[in-house]
């Protein structure tokens, strides 16, 4: 599943540059994650980088966008063009 940024976000700007898929962007009030681009860093890293750098722990799994590791890997391959 993709990740989501909660209302606890303090707009510290550290998560956006860490995302290898450019899935994080500034929303109207807080940062947001595009579920079509989020792979939880599958294919890039062992753990989601945004979660690793977030100082307020406001990036949980998005229960509304459930995906298996296989689906996340397929999305990674589609986004990067890697086989």
Automatic annotation (TrEMBL):
Q: Which domain of life is it from?
A: Bacteria
**What GO molecular function annotations does the UniProt record carry, in alphabetical order?**
4 iron, 4 sulfur cluster binding; metal ion binding
Key words, A-Z: 4Fe-4S, Electron transport, Iron, Iron-sulfur, Metal-binding, Repeat, Transport
The answer to keyword Cell division applying to this record is no
Give the transmembrane region(s).
Answer: none
**Per the record's keyword annotation, is Hydrolase included, yes or no?**
no
**Which GO cellular component does the record give, naming just one?**
cytoplasm
- PROSITE patterns in alphabetical order: 4FE4S_FER_1 (PS00198), 4FE4S_FER_2 (PS51379)
Tell me where in this chain the 4Fe-4S ferredoxin-type domain is found.
1-29, 31-64
Protein name, UniProt field: 4Fe-4S binding domain-containing protein
What is the scientific name of the source organism?
Phytopseudomonas punonensis
